């Protein structure tokens, strides 16, 4: 298998508490292929690490937001796919190429709409929205939790000319690559790119802080790979990494 852009999402089953208690948890959706990340609609591929508390309560209101084309495209029952639906609903056409700024704006607006729907039903438990979405050319990744006290899951990235799968080692870069992780109360999203030429840019870190207010988007040209992990911190940052 060879591709200039690969999304892989390996994790345990989705779990979520309800708005009244974080002790009792329930499965979000059955174990099925339809509920597996990444999700694909039109030009867009989407994966999510996190959870939407009381999703079963707000799911109906989420579905009401969708125009017919988006509603009819829903195949599974997870909170993640429904977040994807909110994102697709912000795009005029999810079958055509969009510029990076349009993708960033659509993702930010989908987060705002989700948070508003949750608050309208009195769901006050913070939600984690570590998301990666791509149209095959542009990748937008976020690391976000709408809380001033609790931190979102960490976010890792690696960038290189190419990656190869080794049976006993896993995925390795064909050449030196940039790699970083975000963690701690003041971290948000680390970024790094590598162009398809021999030259490369060093990784950079977006501003941190605990305020759940969106910060300006950052853009870099090149190719990259991103994945999610454990605990971390920060506010919403959207990063577009566009292939040359």
Automatic annotation (TrEMBL):
This is Glutamine amidotransferase type-2 domain-containing protein. Keywords: Glutamine amidotransferase. It holds the Pfam family GATase_4. Gene3D superfamilies: Glutamine Phosphoribosylpyrophosphate, subunit 1, domain 1. Residues 180-244 are annotated as: Disordered. Residues 180-194 have a biased composition (Polar residues). Coiled coil: none annotated. InterPro entries: EgtC-like, Gamma-glu_amide_hydrolase, GATase_2_dom, Ntn_hydrolases_N. Residues 1-244 form the Glutamine amidotransferase type-2 domain. Residues 195-204 have a biased composition (Low complexity). It comes from the Eukaryota. CDD domains: YafJ (cd01908). PROSITE patterns: GATASE_TYPE_2.
